[in-house]
Design a protein that fits this description.
Number of strands: 19
Shape: globular
CATH architecture of the largest domain: 2-Layer Sandwich
Mean pLDDT: 81
Largest sheet: 7 strands, mixed
CATH topology of the largest domain: Chloramphenicol Acetyltransferase
Distance between the termini: 56 Å
Radius of gyration: 25 Å
Number of domains: 3
Length: 427
């Protein structure tokens, strides 16, 4: 019996993804829950598991093809009964319509890629131990290391475009593409330092992020209001207890859990800030699923901490740390990045003092927090130095009026400037 494998929902606002690679070859036996295919979206790379035991009968879509949610991508034979099937057409990254897979020239089988025979055919000659050492010695994600191993690439030869020279998946793919266009006898090819410019095709994750940002920016009438907070009391409180908390609980608390709690408390008086605008309806949420932005190489991902109103500062800190580590190692699941009701993005960790963040649809607001900086301010008629923090709150002006947003942000700041009254109950 033939069972059609389709692209499942991959997260809020995600309507398509790119087939990265097939993890099961045609004719290969498959067990239930074994990964069949890796799909890349602007948020994560996710492996789609098999819903049944059986045999991978046919790939309907080749790698590097853009597919929509719900599209048929493969046929699984779950009883070994062959029936007539039809390949469907889909759109690739170049905007052209793909022909049915029966008419396409088949690529080398996946098990051939990365073997000695493949390297010789491609003109690649290198010592395996040296390659493995190069892969291990370069800071990279598990996905990057796996890709480098499959294509026999010494990561020391790949120029990283990420923070601190970190090698990203896009860097490795670009290196692979370049290797096919240069002398195959030179496996140590690197991008020349003498180039006056480097042309980088915007594809994959970066392309999808761009499309979603354009959609959000041109669909939502963004307005950003700014305000600043005197963080003196909270800074002193953290300095006093941060080491003790780390010794006793094994977690070094950042300011993000405090921002989260202040947002929750303030939203009790301004509930529309914690909502989503879908269709013609505003869905005001009673639970707070707070997304927080995590920077990865040249991209950004927003894990979501669920039901924050039920959790303490310590619980929030531990969960944020765990999700951040999963994000940096490409181990986030769909459940880790969906269901957000409000987002906080911290540009201050990179030294920014102001920004105008873009709202993540279908949410109606996003809070940008920035670097805490000592500034001269007037207190009781005297100029004193205080640790000040600028906030930028972007909101959907279709739903949120300016006065409502300004008052909400001011309430958030009031909680942060006077934490003594609420910290005891939420630690």
């Amino acid at each position: 019996m033939d069972f059609k494998i389709v692209v499942p929902p991959l997260g809020e606002s995600v309507v398509e993804g790119t087939i990265v690679k097939w993890l099961k070859s045609e004719g290969e036996k498959v067990k239930i829950d074994e990964p069949l295919v890796e799909i890349m979206t602007d948020k994560i790379n996710v492996e789609i598991p098999s819903p049944h035991n059986g045999t991978m009968k046919k790939h309907l879509v080749p790698p590097d093809t853009l597919v929509e949610i719900g599209a048929q991508i493969a046929i699984l034979d779950i009883e070994g009964v062959a029936i007539e099937t039809r390949a469907f057409q889909t759109t690739s990254d170049d905007g052209k319509e793909h022909i049915p897979v029966e008419q396409e020239t088949k690529a080398p089988p996946e098990e051939f890629v990365g073997t000695t025979a493949h390297h010789e055919k491609m003109g690649i000659h290198a010592d395996k131990e040296s390659i493995d050492a190069g892969i291990k010695s370069v800071k990279s994600s598990p996905v990057v290391r796996r890709l480098a191993k499959e294509h026999f690439i010494d990561l020391r030869l790949v120029r990283g475009s990420g923070r601190d020279g970190r090698v990203s998946k896009e860097d490795v793919i670009k290196y692979i593409d370049a290797r096919h266009s240069v002398d195959k006898k030179k496996p140590d090819f690197m991008w020349p330092d003498t180039e006056v410019e480097e042309i980088i095709p915007i594809t994959g994750v970066r392309k999808v992020i761009g499309e979603h940002m354009v959609k959000s920016a041109f669909t939502i009438p963004h307005v950003t209001t700014f305000d600043e907070a005197d963080m003196s009391r909270l800074v002193l409180w953290r300095k006093k207890y941060v080491d003790q908390i780390e010794r006793e609980h094994g977690i070094r608390i950042t300011y993000m859990p405090f921002f989260t709690k202040a947002v929750i408390f303030a939203a009790k008086s301004f509930p529309w800030m914690n909502s989503t605008y879908e269709g013609a309806n505003l869905h005001v949420k009673k639970n707070f699923n707070i997304g927080f932005a995590v920077a990865r190489d040249n991209s950004l991902i927003v894990p979501v901490v669920k039901n924050c109103e039920q959790k303490s500062i310590l619980q929030l800190a531990k969960e944020m740390k765990a999700l951040g580590e999963k994000a940096n190692s490409d181990n986030l699941g769909i459940g880790d990045i969906t269901g957000g009701t409000f987002t906080i993005t911290n540009a201050g960790m990179f030294g920014a003092t102001a920004s105008t963040p873009i709202i993540a649809q279908p949410q109606v607001a996003i809070l940008g927090v920035h670097k805490i900086t000592d500034k001269p301010v007037v207190r009781d008629g005297e100029i004193v130095i205080r640790p000040m923090l600028n906030f930028g709150l972007s909101f959907d002006h279709r739903i949120i009026d300016g006065g409502y947003a300004v008052q909400f942000l001011r309430r958030v700041i009031e909680y942060l400037e006077d934490p003594d009254g609420w910290l005891i109950g939420v630690i």
